[in-house]
Structures are given as structure tokens and as C-alpha cells.
Recover the amino acids of this structure.
């Protein structure tokens, strides 16, 4: 605590060098420094550039630099979650670096399960498109072991 006294002018000033809750983000003696404790110190993904103000590193965004960005992997193709910069965690039926590929035994724009066949595999033999943009798929089963729904894709 600092005290300034001037008895001739009847001035007494007492300064408390501690910051209080009315000054979040400020620290140090007489609150001359700043910190980012109010934004979890930018989660280690950025620099503190002002009182509770983060400047995020590349690949991170948000007030606390907690949101990973996946712009280089097509934002996970809207089929997954960005967990680290340009690292996707794909939804259950998608795979690949940007979650744009169906897992085995799944096909189509929504990676739906392939039809089941007994004693063989399914192949797509016909796609009929209607004027309204809908389509009808015809599947047949084969006795060849070639992989279920491999390389067949329809939107």
C-alpha cells in the first residue's frame, strides 16, 4: 500500500496496488499490467494482447482461442467436427481427412448402409432419375465377392 501525504495542502492519498474484481484482466502493481485469466489464458492457443483480449494463433478462433478451424480440409465437409486445426473427427458413417468418403458398406451422398444380400454382394444396376430430382435405385445380388456397394455413388 502506498501513502502520499502533503500536510501543507491537507492532501492524503492512499493507493492500494492490488487490482480488484472491478478491473478484470488487469494485474500487477497499481493495475498497470494485464492478463487473460478471465478468458482461460487463451487456452494456450493464442497470445494475451490486452486485458482478457486474445490474439489467436493460426488455426484457432474465438474470444478464448478455443475453436479449431478446418478450412484446409473443407470444414470436415459438414460430416464431422473440427477437433484441432485441420484435424477432423468424422461422423460414424464417414471417413477420410475431410470426412468426404463413406465407410465400407455405405454409399451415396448421405453414406447410407448398402442393401443386404445373402450369399453374395450387392451391385447397382440401374438408376432412374425423375424430373423432380429424385431417383430410384435398383440393386441386384451377385455371387462374386467384390465388395459391397464399392464405387457406386448417387446424389
Amino acid at each position: 500500500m502506498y501513502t502520499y501525504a502533503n500536510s501543507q495542502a491537507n492532501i492524503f492519498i492512499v493507493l492500494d496496488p492490488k487490482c480488484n474484481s472491478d478491473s478484470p484482466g488487469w494485474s500487477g502493481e497499481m493495475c498497470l499490467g494485464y492478463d487473460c485469466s478471465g478468458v482461460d489464458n487463451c487456452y494456450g492457443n493464442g497470445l494475451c494482447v490486452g486485458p482478457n483480449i486474445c490474439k489467436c494463433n493460426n488455426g484457432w478462433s474465438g474470444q478464448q482461442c478455443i475453436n479449431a478451424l478446418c478450412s484446409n480440409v473443407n470444414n470436415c465437409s459438414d460430416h464431422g467436427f473440427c477437433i484441432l486445426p485441420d484435424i477432423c473427427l468424422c461422423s460414424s458413417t464417414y471417413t477420410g481427412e475431410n470426412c468426404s468418403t463413406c465407410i465400407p458398406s455405405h454409399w451415396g451422398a448421405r453414406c447410407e448402409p448398402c442393401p443386404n444380400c445373402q450369399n453374395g454382394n450387392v451391385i447397382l444396376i440401374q438408376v432412374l432419375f425423375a424430373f423432380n430430382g429424385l431417383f430410384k435405385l435398383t440393386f441386384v445380388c451377385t455371387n462374386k465377392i467384390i465388395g459391397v456397394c464399392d464405387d457406386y455413388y448417387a446424389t
About this structure: The chain has three domains: 2-67, 69-103, 107-155. The chain is about 0% helix and 40% strand. Residues 143-155 have pLDDT under 50 and may be disordered.
